[in-house]
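Appendix B: a complete holo record

For completeness, this appendix reproduces one full record from the ligand-bound portion of the collection. The bound molecule is zinc ion. The inputs are the chain sequence and the ligand SMILES; the output is the full three-dimensional arrangement of the complex, encoded as structure tokens. No fields have been trimmed.
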Amino acid sequence: MGTAKWVIDAVKLGELQDVPSELIYLEDRSQRTCSLPLIRFVLRSDDRTVVVDTGGPAEDEEVRRKIPFGYVVAEEERVENALARVGVRPGEVDLVINTHLHWDHCSNNDVFGNAEILVQRSELSYAAAPGPDDERAYRIHPDSIPPFTRCLDRIREIEGGTEVAPGLGVLPLPGHSPGSQGVRVDTGTGTFVITGDCIDAVDSWRRWDSEAPLPSGRFTDLADFHASLARLEGTGWTPLPSHDHAVVDTGTFGY
Ligand SMILES: [Zn+2]
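The structure of the chain with zinc ion bound, as generated:
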């Protein structure tokens, strides 16, 4: 494919609060808690607009109440308002890529009614019947419908790495979940990779010089997780973690 250059906007769609740090940093014993932004990435190149991940629910008080941590969505962070701030109308997005199908990454897929939704086949099959420890990550609570099931007719399953547009590709990053994938984005200032929850936060990726990147405390396969982190290191691309305030604060990448 060609050499299109993309610009990336990282847009905050709410925040998880009081999250135990051992969920973010493997075997962390500090008993700290963290706040984590939910981030949607808007990618633009010429006349094309692609969205990577779509955040959590903003409408349903009951759902919000049942999430085990604090969860807040400010008015300006509601999905339509956050899109308007970066000048995007939902109908002009023709492609959504979900890094994985945990509720905090796909709950607003239905907003993008004209978009095809790209998901790894292994993620879709696991999400349909997750292990008991992972049930809540996909459906929030036992009485609710998993958000990814609202748009099944628009999901296109893919297997492994592939180019999806000029300058844009996906690569499998299993470990956090079986079908987690990253999104490689070529820009005018280098190549970035949207990591999904393979990397939640910059400080689990870049610790001391001598230390390897740290998996998160949520995983389905730890060996796969380490292999995915090693794969990312080998690329030399700049990672954009999925739950780091620094990513939102910088906001725009690629020009
Ligand atoms: Zn996740």
